[in-house]
Each structure stands twice: as structure tokens, then as C-alpha cells.
Amino acid sequence: MKDVFELNGKWTLTDAETGKTYAQAVPGCNYRALQEAGEIPDPFVGLNEKADLWVGERDWIYEKQFELSPAFLNFNKIYLAFDRLDTLAEITLNGRVVAKTSNAHVGYEFEVKEFLAEKNLLRVKFSSPINYVLERQKSLKCPVNGNGLTGIAALRKPSCHFGWDWGPVIPVSGITGEARLVGSSGGRISEFDVFQHHGEKVTVEVRAAAEKPLAAGLELVAELISPSGDKQRKSAAQSGENTFVFEVENPTLWQPNGATKRTEQPLYTVNLKLLSGDTVVDEKEKKIGIRTVELDLSPDEYGENFAFKVNGKRVFCKGASVIPFDSYPSRVTAADVERYVKIAAECGFNMLRVWGGGEYGSEIFYDLCDRYGILVWQDFMFACQGYPFFDEEFSKSVSEEIEYQVKRLSHRASLAIFCGNNEIEVMSMAWIYKRKYIASAKNFFYETLPALIKKHNDFTPYVPGSPLGAGYMKKNGSEDVGDTHLWAVWHGFQPIKFYRKNYTRFCSEFGFESMPDERTVVGFLGKGNLPSLSDEAFSAHQKCKNGNEKMKFYITENYRLPKSFEDYVYLSEVCQAACVADATEHWRRNAGRCNGALYWQFNDCWPTCSWAGIDYHKRYKALQYQAKKFMNPFTVSIEDGDKKFRVFALNDRIEPQEGVLTVQIVRFDGEVVFEEKTAFSVLGSDKKVVWEGELKKFGGRKALKNAVFAATLSAYGKSETKTVLFDKERNVSLPAANIDVDVKVRGTTAEYCLESDKFVRCLRLKTAYDSPLSDNFFDLLPGKKVTVTGVVPEGVDSKDVKKGLSLMHVGLMKPCGSRLSEKLFRLKTLADPWNLLNYVWYKFFM
């Protein structure tokens, strides 16, 4: 028998320095409690982040008084469980020390029956993470950290809490996960692991054990339940570990998102019960997907593969890196996580990379990735720093963390790979005077860590780090082996189409920064601050070194510098989307040589300028809308060469696909220069050239300067158009156009029917509502009708919707200066020593 006494809800938070107390909710953190009490201003607004830093420099005490019934106290064993303690905690119960913890990446459980009474006082004191780091740094002397406070590598806490080039310094402390007491009598499930084996037969193996000898009249019962509800049941009554093996006939296979037309993947349920007669003493459950996952590193004509195979078939991985969803961890709800993962699935993602400078995902995150077919690239939480693996105390904590997370995650259908770290090898070149750190990193990621994983999991692929080369600090960034992080565009000031020169085997990080939605900007600036790049509050929300100058550099290189701030926001997003789309489609056109494109980054943890496709308030940028198209499992892609254009059909579905391609060259005023239709089919998990043509046939690029090349795929009742121009937007005469908009409202759905007399480049519909539209930031061909839908509040009519609607497109942008001034700005930006160093490094050495 067992029972749970919840410890969530109302606690008291005390400032250990002043003795002042505040109401504290659990799960929660000190920053959030102080903000809700009015003690500190919102660190997300204005310059408040810096003003609030004192919170991280103090110790904080959580206290909760509670009463237990005699029946609960009568349990044979009582456990105190915390899903997450962040980070340096001393736990006392009724004045007696229960434990001290120092790792936010581990869940904790302690036997506490001897500490309890009917009336109880639970106290958790959190020491300042900043003071701890400063003190430990005196002896450890960690290498300089370019992303925040030096020495944070010694603390097993999300590194990004101390700042990053997209994130704030908000080093929270607190009980950021759920807390409970668990009473148990008569036995308890102590081990529950699920494995699957694929040979001539598919079998599911369950390994289980109970704390109390089963000879005491207890029985372990395991059930395997198929997606259709069919059950298999097995039991055992012997002590020690028990193994149950289920044969799965005609398994319904789990597939990555987009491989089939299923929107949700089939999951099997493994249920384990500890019974005493008909009484359930303890019970646990896990969901699994029947599938195989491999990482193919075999040699080929280009070097060495880096290709994921699911169920024996290659998968081109498409997606992005995930950072923590909020700087206040406890503010993230299950609904928030579901919205993010559903967005990824709806936009064609089949992989998310859980980045190593943040935190491991929640159970609901992996549940949803399992459900929606999103493969997970799982970094361990080590990023961009030298870690003191030689330190005995640190190493012991890390080993416990690895065991905890590997056992927690190994059964997951979505788990595709364990990756040792993010960018430690490439960063370690700067630590040459810290050889102790370099040597310990090599030993840990190449020997110790894989050995720790294999104790519990010898089937999930593992790589020591990302980017991966041909050995420790060998050929990192090479395009013929391993995976790459490519930053020549953005950090290296190379042109947006520079990625076409690189045929990486797998690009696990690349990206382009933009501003968030202008409503988000106005929100984080706070009262009295004007939306301006020179505003101090705006600069506080731009964490990338010279980031504002880089955005302006790329805008002026591809467009004209606009007059209004709102237009500037718009063009920064358009640049970002163009860059990521061009790179991803290039690598998809070369699938087989390249096997994945994960852009940086999927989301934000606070309102800021960043590489995210969705801003903190879940407002789509242009990138997120475009991702639906360039990650579509079945789509077309235009390769616009200098002399020849080719149109590819890209098929990530495992079954063959067919469609009709319509190729057009249309002048901006609507004149059709060329049109040709082609019916085609393409094999499963393949790509092919469907159309190609020489530009000289149409007079060359110069003659087509004010025209657009359009490729429309019509298939299975839907159509999608991809377009390219024959010159940069800054060099062509895009028309203002007359756009007719008809709005209809049916219930809570608005339909926007649009038609233009001239070509419209990157049309943005700005509505009065936050919900994303079915499409946005798209090109509109002359005379072609397009319908877009979106959710609106109940009770609004078409007049209300149309009144709150405004349109933006590149043809409406008014330049604020001369072309010469824009060129001089770019030269001045490149002359900055830091920018020049990056330009030279990425152009000539990467």
C-alpha cells in the first residue's frame, strides 16, 4: 500500500540576510516570489535584470508547516521526494538535517520516517549560487567563460541562468519541481526498466525488482498493452530482479514525424504492478514506441556518414535546438510544453536538440515528443566551458546525474542520441594554458561518460560532443565527417547564401538573429522607453556582441534600410527566414551527403533579440511560418544557379509521392514570361530534379531583374508555391501593389482572402490577435487568390477583424538613407576589430 502527501502549494520564503518573509508557491523560485510580492520589478522589462541581481547573491530559506494523520505516520517507510531542487540546498525536517544537495539536474528522494511527527516543519535553505561559484573559482581556476560568470562550470545548475548570448543573468534558487511525501507499506517497486530487441522477432523485455522479498506473499505483474488495446500479462513471485519477455507480433512501428501521414505515433503501454493478493501495493507505467534507431558513421565517397536510421531507413533530420522555455522554470506549464512541441510537429520538424547549456526536458516534454514523432537529440548538460572532472566531489555528482538521466530517458521512443557536450572541443583551443581541463574533458567524454551510459543503456547512439570531428580536437567543423556548427553567416558576416558552399554531413547548429514581434519589443522596453536600437533598455535585451550592428549589416546588404522601427523589425525577421530556409533547402537537396539541418534556435526563455523562430510570448516570427514550407515532408525546392535553375522534388515520406509541378516566370506587373507543367513521381525518402532550364533562354538574370521565378507543387488536394527573385531585393523595383482583402468570420475562425494586381514580396498580415495564422510572410503572385485562416475571439465580426488588420511587404519599405551611406555603414561595421577577426576567421579558416 502507498499514499502520497503533496507538499506543493503555499510555503514561506525568507531572506536569510534580512529575515524578511514572503509568500512562496511550490513549484517556484525566489525571483518569482519576490516579483509577485512587489519586492523586485520584472527582470524581463527595461534595465531591471541588472537591478535584480542581488537576489542571486543572497541565501534563501523555504519553510512549510504541515500535519500528518496517524494513518500516514503508520506507513513502514516514508520518503521525502523533490523532482527538482535548484541548486545548493540544505534540507531539515523538524530541526534535523535530512540531506544537502548540489545538483539541479537530479531528482531526490530521502527516507524520513524517523524525522516525522504529527506536526512538522520542513525547511530548505538555498545558498547563493553566485557566491558559491566565486568561492569555488578561487581553488579550481576554471578557464574564462565567454558566456557569463567564470567558474559556473563547477556548479551543476543550468549554465544559461548566468547569462548567454541570448539570455539574461537570472540565477534563480528554489524548489522548482514538485515536492511530496510518499508513504509505503508492504513493499515497493525499486527497479523498472524496459528494453526492446529486434531480430527475427520483436520482443519487449521488462526488468523489475521490489524492495521487499516477494516471498512475503507479493507478486510482480507486468502487462504490455498495444496501441489497439490488446494485452499480454506475465507475473513472477521470486525475489530479486525479475525479467518478463513479451513477443510483439506484427508490431505497429513508431515513425518520425513526416515519415507517414500520421499526426500522432502509436505507443505501447508497459504497466508494472506489485500485488498482495488483489491489492495493488505499488504501480508504475511507461510508454514505448516499437522502433530501431541507429547512427550510421560508415565511410562513403564523401568521407564518413553521419546519418540517423529509424527502422532501417535513413531520416533527414529537420528541426532546431531547444533552450529552457522560461527563465523562471516553474512558470512553464504542461500546456506551454504541448504548444511548443505541437508547433514543431505542425511545422514539419522531426527532431529537437535539447541543448547542453540549459536543462534536461520534463517528463511531459518527452511524452509529447514520443506522441508526435519528434526525435530527441539529447545533450548532456555540459556546454562551452572547461569542467573540473578531475575534482572528486564534482565527478561524483556528475556520475549520479548521468545514471539518473540515462535510466529516466532510455525507454523513450523519441530518444535518438546521447551527446556528451556542446562545443567544448572547439572552445578548448582557448584553454591551452589550462591543460588539466583539456585532458580531463577528453577522458570524461571519450571514456568515462560512455562507460557510465553503457551500464544502463548499450543501444542508444552516443557521440562525445557536438560538433563532432574525427577524434578529440581533430577535424572539428569538417564537412566530410561528423556534425558541424556553422556560423560563417551571422558571426562571420558571410552572405546569406554562403551555406550553399558547404556540404556538411549533418548541421546541428546554424542560424541568424532577428528581432521579436514589435509588440514584444514594446513590452520589454517598459514605460518611457522609445522603440529604438540606441535605447539603453533595448540594448539590455540584445545579448549578442555587436548584434544590432549585424542585423543592420544584413538588412542593408539585402534590402534598403527602412525609415520606421516597425519596418526594421519586419526586415530583420525576413532576413532570418531567408537565411535558414536557403540553408535547409540546400542541404535537403543534397540529402544522402548531408543528413540533417537543426537551426539555432527554436524558442526564447525571455523577451529578447535572438535566433529563435518563436519569441518568448509564442508569437511566430517569419522563420516559424517559413519552416512549415522548407521542412514540409513533401515539397519542391528551387536551386537558382547563376546560369541554370533546377527544381527538386524533396520527399521525406517513406512511401513514393507524386504531384504536378508548375514552373512560371512572371514579371512584377503580372505578365507571364514562361509557364510549364510537369507531372512527376519521387521515391520514398528520396529527392529528384523535376525541372531544369538555362536562364539564357529567357535573356539572363539582367533581363529578368523585375520578374519572379515560381515553382508550384500541386499534390493530394493541396498546393504550395516557392519563389526566388533574379536579384537581391535591394536591387529590384518591387511594386507597392493593390491588394484586395476580403474577411469572413465563422465562429472563432477568420478567413482572409487576398488577391493582388502585382507581385507582392513577403506579405505579412498583422492582426489584432496573438494566435498564429495558417500562413504569413508569403509571396503573392499577381491575380492569384490566397486564403489564410486564423483564430479570433468569440463575438467579433468581419468588420472588427478587418479594422485591426494591416499589411506589410517589401515593396512598401521606404529607405531612410542613400545606398552609399548603407555601404559605408557595412564597411565601418566590418572594420570593428572583433567583427574583422570573425570575418577573417570564418571566411578563410572555417
Count of helix runs = 18
- CATH-assigned fold name of the largest domain: TIM Barrel
Instruction: Please provide the count of β strands.
Output: 43
What is the CATH class name of the largest domain?
A: Alpha Beta
Main pleated sheet: 6 strands, antiparallel
The end-to-end distance, rounded to whole angstroms, is 62 Å
For the record, the CATH architecture of the largest domain stands as Alpha-Beta Barrel
Helix/strand structural class: alpha+beta
Number of domains: 5
Q: Can I get a quick summary?
A:
This protein is α+β, with helices and mostly antiparallel strands. The longest helix has 25 residues, at 565-589.
Architecture overview:
This protein is α+β, with helices and mostly antiparallel strands. The chain has five domains: 2-183, Jelly Rolls, CATH 2.60.120.260; 189-288, Immunoglobulin-like (Sandwich); 313-516 and 581-630, Glycosidases (TIM Barrel, Alpha-Beta Barrel), CATH 3.20.20.80; 632-733, Immunoglobulin-like; 735-815, Immunoglobulins (Immunoglobulin-like). The chain is built from 18 helices and 43 strands. It has a six-stranded antiparallel beta sheet with strand order 3-2-4-9-6-7, covered by helices on one side. A hairpin with a 5-residue loop joins strand 2 and strand 3 (21-26). Helix 5 runs parallel beside helix 6 (363-372). The radius of gyration is 28 Å and the shape is globular.
